[in-house]
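ok so dumb question maybe but i'm new to this and my supervisor (M.) told me to 'just get the structure for alpha-L-rhamnosidase' and walked off. so i did the thing. is this what she meant?? sequence i used:
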Amino acid sequence: MTRIHPTDCQTEFVRRPLGIDERAPDLRWRVDTDRRGAKQTAYRVLVASSPDRLTVEDADIWDTGTRESVRPSVTYDGPPLEADTDYYWTVRVWDGENESDWSKPAMWGVGLLEADDWEANWIRRPAELETTDVADFDRGQFTYARREFDLPKGVELERARAYVAACHQYELSVNGERVDRGQSFSYPEYHYYKAVDLTDALEAGENAIGGLFTWHGEGQGRPTAEPGFICQLEIELADGSERTIVTDDEWRLREAEWNEDAPLRNDEIGEAVEIIDGRDMPVGWAESGFDDGDWDAAGVVGDHPTDPWERLIAQNREVVDRRLEPESIEQLEDDSYVVDFGKVYTGLPTIEFAEGTAGHRVEIRAAYLRRDDGTVHEKDGTQWTNMGYEYVQRDGDCTFQPFNYLGVRYLQIDDPGEDLDLEQVWLRALHNDIPDTHAGTFESSNETVDAVFELARHSALYGTQEQFIDTPTREKGQFLMDALNISAVSRRAFGERAMSRQAIQEFVRSHYRYWEAEGRLNAVYPNGDGKRDIPDFTEAFPEWVWQYYLESGDDAILETAYPVVESVIDYIAAHVDEETGLVTNLSGGVGGPYEEGIVDWPPEMRYGYDRDWPARTTVNILGANAFAKAAAIAEALERPADEIEGYRDQQVALEAAIRERLFDGELFVDGCDAAAASDHRSQHANAFALAAGIVPEDARDGVADHIADMGMRMGPMMVPWLCRALETSGRTDALVDLITNPDDDGWANILARDGTFTWETWHCRDPELPTSERRNRSESHAMGAPVLVSIQRALLGVRLVGCEGSHLEIRPPESGLESASGAVPTERGPVAVDWSREGERFDLEVTVPWNATATVTLPVAAAVTVNGMTVSAEDASVSDLEGVSAVRFDEGVSVGVCSGTYQLTLE
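this is what came out, is it supposed to look like this??
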């Protein structure tokens, strides 16, 4: 009997979200089946108020009935959802006549939908209630807030949910245990809150709930706002009674043990060096019975919404942590210790002192690099960031753990006052709670390619925190191009959707907050320095929206983003010069190195690109690509035909102007004006043109040779264009060389220099630059990780073509590697490929997920064996091949297959 079982049920791309505020959530599922060619033909979804009511007879909320559809998703359109309520759902699917079992019950929780659902108040230190100028707040402040309450004994607790937010961050504790950390940074008019399940944390009798919250002041990734904390606890008991506990003047507050006069780590982040006095830590502050008699009554700013917090929106993404043990600990001659965690991680270093001495000050430094004498570099590789800490011990057992994460490999501990061993030092490693940290896998005949794949996976994982971050060290903000790059890896390495969706929504907000009249987006959002754009980043936004949609099938994001995409197109089109037909003097980035187009970043990563022209080649190609993606988005949204054709006409016209004005007959130059053109033929200009399909057919080989012969002459930010150019031109041998050459700029050189996280720049060899400029950039920039996607596409040979992974192209490379195997997550399930070549023989096994099809293209051959049966060019009949739709012999062997596992052999 054919087995069909729906699995991996998600609401809004999250398994069991606790507090969504979507009125019409998206429900999704996948199916496990052992039948070749399996696909969904229909589904039925039930929604109920409890798991035991998920039957056709008892479902009391919504029943879709049997609906014919191939899409494994449905948008809820049942009765209006109620705030602070949990919903349960299940799905059954049909594969023709085959009917599945019902899936295991899934759930989603609805948060607080309207302002009236909030009964809680925003609170902060009472002394700051009358502060009217944000500059008067104590910067880098940490505050404890607590409240005790009783629950009746002898009555079972059925459900407890806390809705909590802080400006800027918080840790929530219940009865002495930390239960949550949150939330993403945002502006007050779109502030996030989180829903936290406390059902198992509370108990009959006395309970205590508390928050440690912090406000930094403005910085990259941190809007200024004001200090504040809000919490609403909703409790349901088995006897039908309910209890609501909210932040108000019954809560007690006190300053935490962080020094508020500490210097800033740098002039970007907004965070202060953490100087912590362990003597002042209120031990047991989140436990019942704690004496808070000398704490202050909370200062009530106002019940929500109150100035400046206009809106609270639910966030169903969280940062998770794990205890990471060090690889080694070494005592130096001066009695300091250096701990090595083996790689750069994003996290919170922790030291458990056993013999603390009250008042003894321990200086601690996180670092990426060590000197020859064993000590750590204070700032090298960290973008000149102060990575230090100070901890003042109390007597006996005491623990140092900061609140704000940094990128950490090494930790130097000066004069700890006792002998330390490995068990006393560890790292609380942090990353976003993505679906599967190893959903994407890769292993090949080339160990360096494998190591680069893992370098990229690790970097993207730890570059994904509350949001996609520029770096965990200096600028923790979410830059648009960095986020685009990290999002691409996160989706393909981890099967992530929710973080990418959040990021796109935030940049949409940046448009409406700052740029609605100009058609642009902010370069970084949220942020403390307000309105700041980079023209190339704005141009790249339609690409991000389209690629996310193509992989996710998230129609809601297309609807949300499309008006902004339209504005971006108008912005680009307004700068098309009538005489040349080119995008000229693209406004934006005024007053610095961003003006009229960044090309690449940092400046040394431009490798001499000639920017001294009003029409820059990279800016124009990004513009043409934006027109193309706008057309694709409009078509997916079924917009009017003339609207779609308008975008395509703009694309065709701009591409023609690029070929006429910026192509010298052999190669592309860097820029031009109406009278002359640059004579510099950069790798950037030619890789962009080749990747975008703008190169004339008879010049493709010459352009491909040019960029391949140059090695690496693009920076980590823009190198995905180079990888795509080599892929689309079939130069996989050059791509492997690019990835594996340890003597040229690139990922292998990072590995050769003991790097464990992708860098902001390669180790640039420009002799005109001082050593500090060639080396002292950030060694923790995940924007350089998209090589992972290129490895999956070009070297494993997996390309996602149809929306939601509905159709795949499997095309192993003809050169560069002898074998490769791996998996790529898709919305329909993982696609797995294992291929190898030996002499004239080529073997491939592919597993295509349920509800998907694939075209497998192999090298030229006269015959192919599929699942033990041979098909020749003379007789390409597939009637006896289960799951095979066609076999064609043309420029290669092309085999069309449905879902299932297939073995193909060429000899």
